[in-house]
Write a structure and sequence with these properties.
two-stranded antiparallel ribbon, alpha+beta, about 20% strand, 6-stranded mixed barrel
Length: about 240
Amino acid sequence: MNMGFYAFVTILITSSAAEQWSTGRCTYHPYEDDYNKLGPSTYDNSPGWCGIRYSKLNVARITAVHGLGESQCNQCLEMMNANGGPTVYVLAVDQKGDPGLDVAKASFMATFPGANPLDPQNCKWRPVEPSKCGTICYGTKEECTPGKRNLLPGYLLPSMPNAPIGIDVGKSGENTSSNPKTEVTKESTTTTVNQPVLPSKTVTSIRTAIVQSTTQPSITVTYSSIIDVVSNTKTTSEAVNSKHV
């Protein structure tokens, strides 16, 4: 095979495998305002289509997507102005009726600085690796697994700390947190040696023996020595009595 043609085919396959940009209108959704107005418990009663409790999401970095299906739940999207500009990573958690994205207000303003949030903007987006959105979903495995829609109601899910909220949380795109407000650091490897567990009475006896051995001299008493002491005492007593006679 011609090596030049082989290289061309390789490049073509690689390019087609890359995720392509989608373009459309971006509007903002007041996720943050609704969260503050309703409170996390009440807001959790009406989660987005993907079934993730809002209290377990960084609601400043989420979006609704037109035509969203289960395979797109928890999909990380790289979003930017269609004409170029800042890049923001948002997590797909809900469906949108109109074409395009319905983005959290903070992410919308970060993408379109100075724009009126009431005015739709032209944007583009594409799916990227989940690690870019690693600091957005802090819920259970049922809630935060990419490509999975959670159907369990909130009251059947375990209680967990609420997610931190802000456009700057995980702004670098690194997955620096796996549960709310807790940063993941490199864990050191520690080897634990299991010590034998002794009954409490045995431990007490051992401690008593140790104390006695360190505070008192060792005394060895035998049966024969006791007999000798008694005999000597009797002899001495008889001698004393004979003197008095």
